[in-house]
Amino acid sequence: MQRYFIDSNVPESQKISIGIPHYHHIINVMRHVSGDQLIFVFNAGETYIVTIEEVEKETISCHLTERLEKTVELPIDVTLACGLPKGDKLDLIVQKTTELGIFSIQPFEAERSIVKWDEKKETKKRQRLQKIAQEAAEQSHRVHVPEILPLLTSKKLLLELAQYTHVFIADEEEAKINEQKVFKKLLNTMKINDKLLIITGPEGGLSRNEVTSYIEKGAISGSLGPRILRTETAPLYAMAAISYEFEL
């Protein structure tokens, strides 16, 4: 069943009317009709199977049929601080890490980031990325849509580290010296509901100055295996490892 995120609380009447923008996708794209069932995710992640009762012009009347209790969310909150990469790589990172269970994504301008966002560009980029995250969350049947957080500079990112239980820097220099067990040891120490921040760099990686400043604020650095990973590969590797550790 197709899943939709509804920006409202569960109605006490167990009935709900849906309009734009979901109407177009439900009726014109998916070709649903009266009697068909969908999955609606309401605020706070409450999830229900709903049945379409009536289709009118730009409005769909539905009733809530069954509450779904199963959750597919990771037991820890993982935020990715991603140094701005070139091209459309961030689109891919957002889509795939959402499918893999990321909680939120924090873009930041690393010292080696070639790409720069001005205020106007940031607004459009975040809107686009948020849409990608929502579509990926719907496709992967999640109950949480990862938030694309406002862009930070590398220095401002430092001020955010204190809010996380653990901060891990995916550092290619550590891979070169064969330091491969730090990430595994970190995951083994984490507890349910912990908040993990993973910092990955852009093309060219993080500068030594950045890594040192993050470590001084309590972060730990390590590699993601013995090979040097591309900027769009490292976050996917990390999320897959986290899923294996906590879900498989």
Automatic annotation (TrEMBL):
One cellular component term from this protein's GO annotations in UniProt: cytoplasm
Ribosomal RNA small subunit methyltransferase E methyltransferase domain segment(s): 73-243
UniProt key word S-adenosyl-L-methionine: yes
Catalytic activity from the UniProt record: uridine(1498) in 16S rRNA + S-adenosyl-L-methionine = N(3)-methyluridine(1498) in 16S rRNA + S-adenosyl-L-homocysteine + H(+)
Residue intervals of the Ribosomal RNA small subunit methyltransferase E PUA-like domain: 23-62
Compartments (UniProt record): Cytoplasm
Family of the protein in this entry: Belongs to the RNA methyltransferase RsmE family.
Full protein name: Ribosomal RNA small subunit methyltransferase E
Species per Swiss-Prot/TrEMBL record: Brochothrix thermosphacta (Microbacterium thermosphactum)
Chain's gene name: rsmE
